[in-house]
Structures
1.
Amino acid sequence: MKLNRAIIIVCVMSLCCAPLITKAQDLSHALSKGKWIDLSYDFSPQTLYWPNNPTAFKLDTIAEGITAGGFYYSTYAFSAPEHGGTHLDAPIHFSQGGLTADKIPLEKLTGEAVVIDVSAKTLNNRDYLISVNDITEWEGKNGKIKENMIVFFRTGYGQFYPDAEKYFGTAERGAGAIPKLHFPGIDSIAAEWLVQHKIKAVGIDTPSIDFGQSKNFKTHQILLSASIPGFENIANMNLLPIKGAYIIALPVKIKNGSGGPLRIIAWLKNS
C-alpha cells in the first residue's frame, strides 16, 4: 500500500508540475535566442559622484592570500554614497513619504524599454533640455509610447565616462564646482508629459535626470513624486535598439534608502 501511495504521489506531482516545467523550459529556450547587455559601470575609485559629495567608493581589504590551511581566500569591505556611478533614484529621494529603495515593486524595475536618442542635439549643447517635442518626434517615427514602458534618453555623454571634465563639465570638487556643472537633462514639462503617459521608469546616460545647471531639480520632483524611479549614469546605451530591449534594473536593497548602486542589464532578441 505504501508503494502504491508513493507511485500515486509521484504521478500527481508530475502532472501538476509538468506545465511549470514546460514554461520554464520555454522561457530558457526563449532567452537563449537573445543576448544580455550590461548597462552598469564598475564601482571603483574612478566612480563619479556629485562633486560636493564628501566621500566616494572605497574598497578595503579584510583578507587576501593563502591561508594557514593552504587555500586562497579573499574578502573585502566596501563603502559608498547611495547616489553615484550607475544608480537608482528612489521616489523618496525628492518626494517626502515616497517609496524607499527597498519598497519599490519589482514590476517598476523591470520591463520593456524605448530609447530616445537626442545625442545630435545634446553633444552640441551641454545645457540641452530634452523636450516634449523630442519625445513626440520619436513617436512620429516609431509609434506611440505605451503605458508602463521604461523610457531611456540617450544623450551620447556615456562616451565621456569616467572623465569628470567631459562628463560633468568640470573636474573640480567641492561646493564651488556645482555652478560649473554642464550636462543635458530632461525638461520639467517633458517630465510632466511622461507622468501623464504613465511610464514605468526613466533612465539617462548623464549624472542626473535634471540638467547640470538646475537649481530646483524640478524634473526629479515631478517624476519621483509620481513614483517613477530614475536610473542615472547608464552605461552602453549605444548598444540598445530604439525598441524591444527588456530591462532588469536591480539596486542594492538598502532599507529606507533614497537610492543605491544599480546593476542594470538588458536582454535583446537576436536579430
Note: The helical segments are 2-31, 106-109, 119-122, 132-142, 164-168, 188-196, 218-225.
2.
Amino acid sequence: MVCSMLSGKELPKEFWPKAVNWSVYVLNWSPTLAVKDVTPEEAWSGIKPCVDNSRVFGWLMFMCLTVK
C-alpha cells in the first residue's frame, strides 16, 4: 500500500514514514471482515469514526498564519 501511494504521487522515499502512518490510519478506519459491522477503530474505542477531514494522500496543503 505504501509503495503504491509513493509511486502513484511520484514522491521520494523520504515520505515513507508519512505514507506508513496514513496507511495505518486508513486501514483502521476502513471496514474489515475481522470485526463484523464496525471499523477496527470503532471496535477499539466504541466511537464511530468521523471521516469528514479525510484527504487524498499527497495533496498539497497550504497554511495561512494570521499575525496580530
Note: The first helix runs from residue 2 to 8.
3.
Amino acid sequence: MKKILLTFGIVAILISGCKKDLTLYPYNQVETTQAFNTEADVALAVNGMYAGLRTSTSYWVSGTFNILPDVLADNLVLNPLGRLSLKQPFYEWRYTGESTSGLFTSGYNITRRANAIMENIGKLPTTTATNNARGEALAIRALIYFDMTRLYSKTYTNATDADLTIPYVTTTDPTITPAKESLKGVYDKIITDLTTAEGLINASNGVGRLNKASVAGLLSRVYLYKGDNANTIAAATRALGATPSIGSLTTFPQIWTDATETGVLFKIKNTSVDNVNTQGVNYYQVTGGQKKSEYVVDYTFFQLFAANDIRKTVYTETSLYSGNNMNHVIKYAGRPGQPAGVVDGKVLRTAEVLLNRMEAEYYTNPTAALADLVLLKTNRYTGYVAEVLAGPALLAEIQKQRRLEMAFEGDRFFDLKRLNLPVQRDAVHGQNADGTGTPPVFSSLPLGDKRFLLPFPQSELNFNTNLKQNPGY
C-alpha cells in the first residue's frame, strides 16, 4: 500500500510543481492542495474518478475484468492459435504475486481518487451537488473494494470470523502501511458506504454515472454474496422499480451496440475519441477478415444456449478461423461504423439485479422467484411459453439462466466461489465448434484450493510488511 500511495503523492508534487493554473490539471488526476475550491473542481475530480475505470491501463471496466473471471472458470476454452494472453498466469491457474500486481494497483488507484474527493469535499458548503459527489465517491470505492474482495479472499458465506481480506483504505495518506482486515468487517464497510451513497446520490446523473437505482442494484449484489436474502430482495426491488425493464427481444441486442440504455443501470462511456478497445480485443482480433480469438466458448457450455435464445447470436458467432469453425465471443464487438471493440463498459444491468432477486426469492418466496424467472425468459427466448418449476428444478434453472445471462461479463469464477463449487472444465472437447481441437490440460480447480484466492503482489508486500500474503503462496 505504501508503494501505491507514495506513487500518487509523487505525482501530486510533480503536478503542483509544473502547473500553476487549476484549469491545466488533467481531468483524471487529483491535486488535493489546489483542487476542491469550487463545485466545478469537484465535478472535475468526479470525472477523473470515473475515468479510472475506463482507461486501457485499468484492469476494471474497460480492461481485463470483463474476461478474467471467465478465463479462471469454465465458460471459455483457450484457442491455441490465438495470442495465448492470460494463458499461464490465469487460465492455467499458475499465478504469482507478479501476475496480480496490475489488478491490485488499479484497484487502489481508483479508490484513491474516490478518497481524495471524500477528504476534500468538506471544504465546500453542503449542497445537492456536493452530496451527489460524496455519494458517487462512496459507491465507486465500495464497488472496487467489493471486486477486490472477490479476487483476493473467500466469499462471505464461505468465510469464518477469522478470515481476512484487503485493507479498506479510506485515506490518501502515502505513509500508511495497513494490514489485512476481517472479511466480514470489510463487507460491513462496503454496505455502509453503499447505503450512505444511496441516500446522498441523485436519482439521475446521466449516462455513464451512478445514480440512486444503480447504487441500490450494487447493494443487491453485495447482499446476495453475503447471503442476506431479505436485503437482497429489498435493494433489488428499489433498483428495478415496479416494472423491471431488462431489455426485450427487440432491444436486448441493442444494449451491446450502445443503441439503447434500456436494461443498463450503470455503464462507463467509451467514445470513439476515448478509443479504448480492450474489452473487444480481450476476446479476438480480426486477421485476414477472420476472427482470431484468444478464447472461444467452451463446447459444453455452448450447448446450453438454445436455438431460440437470442443471447446465442448476441453473445456468440460461429465462423471460420484457420480452417475450422469456432464459437467466438462477439459481445464486445463494438458499435457499427466505429472502431472495432470500442464499446461502453456495462458495469451493472437490470437483468443481473433481477437474477439477484430471484435467487434470494427462491429461499423466501418461490412463487415470486418463478415470476421473475418467467419475466427473464420471456425476454430472452422467442416463442417462450411460461413454465411451472419448483424445488431444486427451479433453483437449477435460476442458476443456469444466471450463467447464460452473465456469460463473459466477469461473473462466473465469483459465482462458483460464492456457491462453493469447484471449477470443472470440459476436459474432452477443444476449441473448435464441433468439439475437436485441444482440450484444456488444466481442467479442474477443486474446492478449498488456495488458487480460489489470488496472491497479493510481492512488490507490495516488500513495501508494506504489515500486509501478509494469502495462505499457500
Note: The chain is about 45% helix and 10% strand.
